[in-house]
Specification:
Blueprint: E1 3-8, H1 12-23, E2 27-33, H2 37-47, E3 51-53, H3 56-61, E4 66-69, H4 76-85, E5 89-92, H5 100-113, E6 117-119, H6 127-137, E7 144-152, H7 155-167, H8 171-175, H9 184-194, E8 198-207, E9 226-235, E10 240-246, E11 258-264, E12 267-271, E13 276-280, E14 284-286, H10 312-316, H11 343-356, H12 364-382, E15 388-389, H13 397-400
Parallel strand pairs: 1-2, 1-4, 2-3, 4-5, 5-6, 7-10
Antiparallel strand pairs: 7-11, 8-9, 8-15, 9-10, 11-12, 12-13, 13-14
Helix pairs in contact: 4-5, 5-12, 6-9, 9-12
């Protein structure tokens, strides 16, 4: 079973995923769509794609089976619904949407059409999340009663360039995007490990003082002047989760931009930029090597000489030792990866879901749990930290009876 896909928005990030979709044996054809036609043509030539289309509307009117949306982060919700209603399976970059109403519309469209929707949350396959998920499944934590997920990505370390690339001459208006409306790298990494969902939140927003026109309410299309925000969530099981979204921070986000902590009654897990430890009531154990992602290299690279054979697949695929490369297609060996080894798993999840009619891990209902808490947290910050309830849309239908 195979299908065709059109990738919408083939800039730096979307083009990389177009390449992975093209490599996957479960995909027959890949098309590029971009508001700048030259980018679509460049992507087609660079990755050997099967063609380009002039617009999103042309793509939806075509016989292509699925779309992958990599447009500006505040545009995803309406585009996803439009694609689903046009009969296309949808892969969407994060965030799912920027309002509760948009999230509800996506869930309703998925329910009514029966099509596949997946949000490409990279933190679901962050090595820290994978390790914590495995340890929780083995009962090593005991009861996890407190967790933290931080997305610490300073504007000076890549975001200025990214917003200028995508936003053109008016980039400052969009660079002020509220941090808590991009919450999934932090929240998804926690919930991807422990499950459950947030039921209420209190959030404090920190107003920016750089004075460079970014996070300036007079310029911002979002009327936003928060560059950092901290939220404390109440969980459905009575536990707590804290999230930091930081855009002005003295931290090496180019080394590790998402970091996590989990505290259980029997053991805990803590992560810094270059060090990760597992702790129980007897001691502290450095597990940094287990969650360290290696860059993709060739099998005959001399640096593999001292690497155990069973670990070599992880090295050559840009993965960490906690990842399971056996489920990935051989075509991904030596292919680019990203976000700590997550990209290849995300593409494979979507391809598997579409071709076999199974629900992906980060389906619409799970994506809502990763996204809506941040939306409500931003509203809480606007209200001076008022504690607000968070709606839960429930489990995905196929999961509710499993």
């Amino acid at each position: 079973m195979t299908f065709s896909i059109g990738v919408v928005g083939v800039g730096q990030f979307g083009g990389h995923f177009a390449h992975l979709f093209k490599l996957h044996p479960g995909v027959t054809r890949v098309y590029a769509v971009d508001s700048l036609p030259e980018r679509a043509s460049e992507a087609q030539a660079k990755w050997g794609l099967d063609g380009t289309m002039a617009s999103f509307e042309e793509l939806l009117a075509s016989d292509v089976d699925a779309v992958a949306i990599f447009t500006q982060r505040w545009t995803h919700g309406p585009l996803v619904v439009q694609a689903l209603r046009a009969g296309k399976h949808v892969y969407s970059a994060v965030p799912m949407a920027i309002s509760e109403d948009e999230i509800a519309a996506i869930i309703e469209a998925v329910r009514e059409t029966g099509l596949t929707y997946m949000m490409g949350e990279t933190s679901y396959y962050n090595p820290a999340t994978v390790h914590a998920r495995n340890q929780r499944a083995a009962g090593k934590f005991g009861r996890i009663f407190y967790s933290e997920g931080d997305y610490v990505h300073d504007m000076d370390l890549g975001f200025y360039d990214a917003y200028q690339y995508s936003g053109g001459e008016n980039w400052k208006a969009t660079a002020s995007y509220p941090p808590m409306l991009y919450p999934t790298h932090a929240i998804g990494g926690v919930l991807g490990a422990i499950g459950g969902y947030a039921v209420s939140v209190s959030c404090i927003g920190v107003k920016d003082d750089r004075g460079d026109g970014v996070f300036n309410k007079d310029i911002s299309m979002f009327n936003n002047d928060f560059s950092n925000a901290t939220a404390l969530f109440e969980m459905n099981d009575g536990g707590a989760m804290r999230t930091n979204e930081m855009r002005r921070v003295g931290y090496p986000s180019h080394i590790r931009e998402s970091r996590f902590r989990f505290f259980g009654t029997e053991a805990s897990f803590e992560q810094l930029a270059t060090t990760t430890v597992w702790q129980d009531k007897e001691g502290v154990y450095d597990i940094s090597e287990q969650v360290l992602t290696r860059p993709s290299i060739s099998l005959d690279d001399p640096s593999l000489a001292d690497v155990a054979p069973e670990l070599r697949d992880a090295f050559v695929s840009g993965l960490a030792p906690v990842h399971d490369p056996s489920r990935l297609p051989a075509e991904f060996n030596h292919a680019p990866n990203g976000h700590e080894g997550s990209h290849q798993f995300l593409v494979d999840d979507f391809v598997t879901a579409v071709n076999y009619g199974v629900i992906p891990p980060v389906n619409a209902w799970t994506a809502a749990r990763f996204t809506l808490p941040g939306i409500v947290a931003h509203e809480s910050a606007l209200r001076g930290g008022e504690r607000l309830a968070i709606r839960d849309f429930g489990d995905a239908p196929q999961l509710a009876t499993s």
